[in-house]
Amino acid sequence: MRALLSAYDKTGLPAFAQGLVDLGWDIVSSGGTARVLAEHGIPHHTVEEVTGSPEMLGHRVVTLHPKLHGGLLADRSNPDHLADLERFGIEPIDLVAVNLYPFSSDPSIELIDVGGPTMVRAAAKNWAHVGVLVDPADYGPVLDELRLGHGTLAEATRRRLARTAFAHTAAYDAAIVTWFDDTDPEPAVLPPTVHLALERAGDSLRYGENPHQQGARYREVGATSWWDGVTQHGGIALSFLNLFDAEAAWQLVHDLGDRPAAAIIKHANPCGAALATTIEAAYHLAFECDPMSAFGGIVALNRPVGLALAEELVANPKADVLIAPSFTDDALELITRKKKNLRVLSAPPPNRDRLELRRVGGGFLVQDADRFDVPRSAWKVATKAEPTEAQLDDLDVAWRICAYVKSNAIVFVKDGVAVGIGAGQQNRLDSGRIAAEKAAGRAAGGVCASDAFFPFRDGLDAAAAAGITAVVQPGGSLRDDEVIAAADEHGIAMVMTGERHFRH
Pick the catalytic residue: 45, 65, 125, 406? Predict the structure, then answer.
């Protein structure tokens, strides 16, 4: 039996090679791998000895030779293949351990591996006869199976290893294509092709959106996200919707600015958000926006949680997830003791993806991620009344919250606190009415944000009836003049951003 070993990552390789030798295997190796085996006194043949050809072109050509690839690709059940092996003096190769240059860690032309992927694909194509390993974590299990199976691997094992190998080369090629896109002197916002290689991060979730669905979190191969830095301190396992809603909550609370902030998300919509001088006050004010909807919601805080806040958290109705940068020991002890099912997460700041994808039949809708491209300094006052600095501060908060609310979206804010949120209605007027009902009089003297333009003045009239004194909206309606006139009638200051924030 013959094995070909050529690995950039040498983790566990000497022990694996020695295990093969102990089982009577003949080893062929190249370059740095051969040097490591020599240092450990492990007998082997070099690639040059097998092929009769030296390395060339600065190591660009090493393993690309019929003496190797014939041994990898030969179908042992095909008499013609066996005859060719004998004719050209080629020995079959039964096992390959190869991993590739670490392109993702330091992208460059010289780290685009050619020989490695070629060997991996050849061995994986011929998985009926060849085992291929690209992950050092497989070395131990494969050795164990070889020992138990008298030097052979089960068909199911070879098939599993081949699938892993093709996934490995697919992710490698995807990383290279993405690098070409990212380094293009004139990069396209939407490239002509998008190549996703995803790996499951951890075990499957308890279930998907509903108990009859299966779900899991996947991440891009070779990349990490803020989720990979999350530590769960207590509570039951996270569900599909816990992750989905926690993503929205964590992104929103970091979009609200540098002051202590809290956000509460329910069914992917904010039901509370607030800025304050302390994180304790911010949480209290966010919760008071809509205590009923906060039940079973996700609470996100942008400051560490101490004992005083923990006491308020455990006194309020059930939340499903609590996420913050960190927790003091006494706060964590109290929360996990009093709220045994609450998922308590500490997390690093969120990262932002450049592209957003949504599945549609047979493909995806792809767009660049929504962001606040129009700064507050570029907002245009459309009314006779000018907003005060305090109103502009509240309008900025309302505008940021509104971008996270499902369309049609109306958000009322007063003193940095959301007091009424209307979400997901088929018309903007109903969203305004819901926001006013939630505010229950607290919006008087506050401001309003609308994620898209007011198509009619009735939405503006509803805001005025709730006591709103300033409005931020994109503008762009055919009836902007009517809406502006209505604002002037009510003495409301209105600013136009020229930027819409639909979220569906």
Answer: 125
